């Protein structure tokens, strides 16, 4: 849940760092203020009609008053070759995440230094170990992840697909992005660009995610069991979740929504480790919560342990959550690591490795000392990433330098990794937010591909890419996603 990459339109009237290789054909529109004003009015109503909705900051737990989720006025240009590359590698990433989750030794070795200094990762790992020692009750495994990329314009300006991160828990906006392309089709038609509107691809991650949950529910083997969405205390993004929920109701699968505290108060296991909530057997637990330390107090940790010990299919189980940590991401870039995790899969490994940006360990020792010194001397080359999800956590520039100087000689530095800073080509667009003025911004975008897999025992029953998410933000915002209030929803226009 990090930064973005391309935009739509020209850099007229602005300084141009590089030739704009991927301008979508909106240059004429961007200069027509009257047309833009009219299109923005249509766009907002279209978003409300299509259900691109969020609750308000003032009333995050009530739907009496809602507003549109922020989105771009125009679709953003994305190079078709890189878009296809991102889809082509997703099944490989699904297999990789699943392989990591089953490899206790790899997780233990990789996270050893992090666990010593990062209490959150340590507590997750302790639960993982405890559940393995007791013996796994769970036999069906469901992974829903989202691999996020930016388009790095290298020295020669040729864009390359580079992975920012892979989110293995609570990967969001599969629902709202399923409804965003229809809004952009309407906008393009209003602007007299009907042919371009036809080129916007169909995209329905909410259906793809629901198919995975439904398959896991079916393999669990109890028609009367329910799917439990584990949700946050503050639920502004409920409509994104409702999109997936509705797909399940359409398949006659019952869905309940509960918080950690509900699990603590009312959750129980029977002798066969079946999970019950309010007397209802739970087949699948779909986490939309639980990925940052503030989600947990002691009761919530106890609730998490109860869920992990159960037979229910967890999405994700705790090992899969650990597989998504930044330290694991950095370790995967080391020579030989992918070969050990995916033996015999030479082509898959090549596809995965082609997406890696430079990743560096800050473990104690000569190598860590050297890269820390390099980053302090030239902070604009790097991003400093802690073991956290949810956007808004990464450090850049002067802030990166100050933090690294403070912790350079302390084991605390091992809870971070360094990554080469990706430099995408900006483009112009309008970011539509409620109660905000309409103004053109220089923007970058980030492409996410949703992956879904289901494994029963050792057999992979489902493995697919389930749709995409494009998020765009103004270049002055270094970090943060839509839920963090920085990026907005977008639709790729392939060029």
Distance between the termini: 25 Å
- Sheet with the most strands, sense and barrel status: 7 strands, antiparallel
Number of strands: 20
Indicate the radius of gyration in whole angstroms.
Answer: 22 Å
Low-confidence stretches: 1-21
Number of helices: 18
Strand content: 15-25%
Q: Please, what is the average pLDDT? A: 91
Instruction: Kindly state the percentage of residues in helix.
Output: 25-40%
Structural shape: globular
Structural class: alpha+beta
In words, what does this structure look like?
The protein is an alpha+beta fold. The protein is 37% helix and 24% strand. It is built from 18 helices and 20 strands. Strands 3, 5, 6, 16, 17, 18 and 19 form a seven-stranded antiparallel sheet that branches. Strands 7, 8, 9, 10, 11 and 12 form a six-stranded mixed sheet that branches. It has a three-stranded antiparallel sheet with strand order 13-15-14, with helices on both faces. Strand 9 and strand 10 form a beta hairpin. Helix 2 packs antiparallel against helix 7 and helix 6 packs parallel to helix 12. It is globular and about 65 Å long. The N terminus is likely disordered.
Helix-strand layout with pairing:
Elements (H helix, E strand, L loop, with lengths): L26 H4 L2 H18 L2 E3 L10 E3 L2 E2 L3 E3 L1 H9 L1 H12 L2 H14 L1 H16 L5 E14 L5 E9 L12 H11 L3 H5 L6 H16 L5 E5 L7 H12 L5 E4 L1 H7 E3 L5 E3 L2 E8 L10 H12 L3 E3 L2 H6 L2 H7 L4 H5 L4 H8 L5 E3 L4 H12 L4 E5 L10 H11 L8 E5 L6 E6 L7 E17 L2 E16 L13 E3 L1 E3 L1
Helix pairs in contact: 2-7, 5-6, 6-12, 9-10, 11-12, 17-18
Short description:
This protein is an alpha+beta fold. Helices cover 37% and strands 24% of the residues.
């Amino acid at each position: 849940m990090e930064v973005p990459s391309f935009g739509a339109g020209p850099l007229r009237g602005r300084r141009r760092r590089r030739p704009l290789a991927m301008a979508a054909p909106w240059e004429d529109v961007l200069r027509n203020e009257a047309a833009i004003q009219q299109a923005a009015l249509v766009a907002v109503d279209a978003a409300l009609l299509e259900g691109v909705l969020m609750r308000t900051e003032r009333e995050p737990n009530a739907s009496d008053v809602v507003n549109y989720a922020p989105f771009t006025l125009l679709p953003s240009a994305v190079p078709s070759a890189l878009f296809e590359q991102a889809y082509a590698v997703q099944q490989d990433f699904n297999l990789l995440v699943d392989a990591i989750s089953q490899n206790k030794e790899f997780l233990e070795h990789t996270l050893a230094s992090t666990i010593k200094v990062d209490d959150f990762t340590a507590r997750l790992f302790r639960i993982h170990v405890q559940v393995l020692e007791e013996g796994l009750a769970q036999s069906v495994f469901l992974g829903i992840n989202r691999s996020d990329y930016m388009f790095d314009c290298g020295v020669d300006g040729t864009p390359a697909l580079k992975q920012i991160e892979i989110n293995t828990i609570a990967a969001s906006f599969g629902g709202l992005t399923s409804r965003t392309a229809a809004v952009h089709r309407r906008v393009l038609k209003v602007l007299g660009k009907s042919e371009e509107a036809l080129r916007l691809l169909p995209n329905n991650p909410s259906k793809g995610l629901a198919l995975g949950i439904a398959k896991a529910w079916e393999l669990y083997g109890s028609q009367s069991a329910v799917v439990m969405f584990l949700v946050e205390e503050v639920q502004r993004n409920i409509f994104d979740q409702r999109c997936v929920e509705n797909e399940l109701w359409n398949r006659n699968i019952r869905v309940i929504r509960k918080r950690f505290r509900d699990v603590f108060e009312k959750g129980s296991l029977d002798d066969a480790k079946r999970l019950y909530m309010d007397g209802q057997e739970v087949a699948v637990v779909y986490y939309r919560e639980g990925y940052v330390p503030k989600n947990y107090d002691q009761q919530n940790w106890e609730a998490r342990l109860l869920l992990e010990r159960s037979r229910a299919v967890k999405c994700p189980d705790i090992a899969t959550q650990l597989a998504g940590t930044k330290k694991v991401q950095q370790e995967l870039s080391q020579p030989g690591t992918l070969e050990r995790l995916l033996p015999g899969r030479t082509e898959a490994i090549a596809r995965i490795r082609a997406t890696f940006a430079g990743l560096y360990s800050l473990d104690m020792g000569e190598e860590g000392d050297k890269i820390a010194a390099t980053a302090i001397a030239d902070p604009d080359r790097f991003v400093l990433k802690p073991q956290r999800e949810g956007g808004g956590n990464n450090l850049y520039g002067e802030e990166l330098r100050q933090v690294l100087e403070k912790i350079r000689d302390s084991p605390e530095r091992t809870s971070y990794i360094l990554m080469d800073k990706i430099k995408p080509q900006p483009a112009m667009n309008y970011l539509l937010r409620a109660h905000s003025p309409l103004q053109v911004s220089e923007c970058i975008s980030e492409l996410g591909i949703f992956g879904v897999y289901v494994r029963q025992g050792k057999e992979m029953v489902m493995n697919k890419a389930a749709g995409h998410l494009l998020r765009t933000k103004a270049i002055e915002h270094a970090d943060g996603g839509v839920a963090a209030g920085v990026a907005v929803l977008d639709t790729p226009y392939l060029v």
